[in-house]
Amino acid sequence: MFPQLVQVCQVMVIISFSSSITALASMLPPGEVAALRQIGKTLNEDGRVSFNLGDRCESGNVTIRRYPQITEMNGTIGCSCSIADDKFCHITSFELKDSDLSGRLPPDLANLTYVRKIDFTRNNLYGTIPVEWASMKNLHFISLTANRLSGYIPGYLGNFTSLTYLSLESNQFSGVVPPELGKLSILQTLILSSNKLVGTLPEALAQIKNLTDFRVSDNNLNGTVPEFIGNWTQLQKLDLCATGLQGPVPHAIFLLEKLKNLKITDTPGPEFPLLNVPEKMDYLVLRNINLNGTIPEEAWSVETTLDLTFNKLVGELPSNTINRQFTFLSGNMLNGTVPESFIQSNQYL
Ligand SMILES: *[C@@H]1O[C@H](CO)[C@@H](O)[C@H](O)[C@H]1NC(C)=O
Ligand SMILES: *[C@@H]1O[C@H](CO)[C@@H](O)[C@H](O)[C@H]1NC(C)=O
Ligand SMILES: *[C@@H]1O[C@H](CO)[C@@H](O)[C@H](O)[C@H]1NC(C)=O
Ligand SMILES: *[C@@H]1O[C@H](CO)[C@@H](O)[C@H](O)[C@H]1NC(C)=O
Ligand SMILES: *[C@@H]1O[C@H](CO)[C@@H](O)[C@H](O)[C@H]1NC(C)=O
Ligand SMILES: *[C@@H]1O[C@H](CO)[C@@H](O)[C@H](O)[C@H]1NC(C)=O
Ligand SMILES: *[C@@H]1O[C@H](CO)[C@@H](O)[C@H](O)[C@H]1NC(C)=O
Ligand SMILES: *[C@@H]1O[C@H](CO)[C@@H](O)[C@H](O)[C@H]1NC(C)=O
Ligand SMILES: *[C@@H]1O[C@H](CO)[C@@H](O)[C@H](O)[C@H]1NC(C)=O
């Protein structure tokens, strides 16, 4: 498509479809229209949601109505008229969060070859990740958070090398974390919490150098907390609560300078000391992980929540504290008195 035409298309789409030229210019290819219809049916098996999709690129909103009560929900099916060098517009994103969808993940999504973003957060979708999706190598963003999906996490996701965000949180995925995910070299967010994953965290994940957010809480993993997590120098958020993994937690994790939010709980293993933590963290939750020794000074500068409960920590509280929201220290072997500054501050202690 010529640049001038692209311009016309984008402007006119927003205004209306009054002229036949514009209507033509904003057409989706017949294959994408057919796929959209099928996708609507697959996502919405029980028919409680009416899912009307046109054959034009209206850059935006799909109206989703739910019966018997008619509730409009925000769904966005994005499209672009300048993404390909042809006379068509193409579907580029699916964002259908909180939309009461109760069907399966649609295999026909793979027919929409320009889709970059899939977000089906908080629906009731069930079944497995379709094998047809293996061809969707250009995806940048996948969130299937909070559905009822099951089966294995397919290794072919490792071929989606443009992926920066992957969340499969709060589903019923089983099997192991596939080592192929280590090929996702530009991935920034990987969230696998609250599933039924087993096995060890594969060494191959060490290759995802720029991860900023990694969460794998509430699974049935085995093996120890891997050393390579301490090499993820860009990490800002790490959740390892009740993973099934064993301690001791590698010391290098507590040296990650960018870490603002660290939660590790219920990790049995030999006793080990907490020698230091990054300064000015927002959340530091280290509950029931067999810490011994004293609490390092930097821990007292945690800003929002400090939870060091159910360890074997000894020593006294510092004479001054910042006005943090929550401090939890029970289930340790601390001694001495609680300084006035703790009692006078507004924090929940
Ligand atoms: C999607 O593509 C597959 C393979 O090319 C084809 O068999 C299928 O009919 C297409 N789906 C739709 C709804 O057109
Ligand atoms: C999509 O819906 C939102 C909220 O209802 C609205 O503000 C926006 O203008 C709509 N976009 C289009 C392209 O219709
Ligand atoms: C739709 O999105 C807008 C803007 O994000 C929000 O204000 C509105 O509450 C949403 N409506 C529904 C039904 O979720
Ligand atoms: C993933 O990519 C590799 C290398 O390009 C290829 O051999 C393999 O078949 C692909 N896997 C899938 C499931 O597409
Ligand atoms: C990681 O980030 C650094 C700095 O932002 C960048 O130079 C590097 O290319 C990134 N690595 C990968 C594999 O994307
Ligand atoms: C993890 O569990 C699997 C099977 O559940 C077992 O084969 C493997 O040896 C276990 N690995 C470790 C390190 O315990
Ligand atoms: C951590 O990174 C260093 C330096 O790149 C490397 O030598 C070491 O093997 C890595 N450790 C792990 C457990 O991956
Ligand atoms: C913590 O426990 C380890 C392992 O039992 C032990 O070697 C170390 O001396 C203990 N440190 C403190 C300060 O008690
Ligand atoms: C608390 O215990 C430490 C040894 O763990 C001891 O050095 C210190 O004097 C004790 N403080 C008080 C107030 O009992």
UniProtKB/TrEMBL annotation:
UniProt entry keywords in alphabetical sequence: Glycoprotein, Leucine-rich repeat, Membrane, Receptor, Repeat, Signal
Name of protein: PROMASTIGOTE SURFACE ANTIGEN PROTEIN PSA
Major subcellular location class: membrane
Signal peptide (from-to): 1-23
Gene3D superfamilies: Ribonuclease Inhibitor (3.80.10.10)
Highest taxon, organism lineage: Eukaryota
Localization: Membrane
Entry membrane topology: Single-pass type I membrane protein
PANTHER family listed in its UniProt record: LEUCINE RICH REPEAT FAMILY PROTEIN, EXPRESSED
One Gene Ontology cellular component annotation held by this UniProt entry: membrane
InterPro entries: LRR_dom_sf, LRR_R13L4/SHOC2-like, Plant_RL_S/T_kinase
Residue span, Disease resistance R13L4/SHOC-2-like LRR domain: 148-263
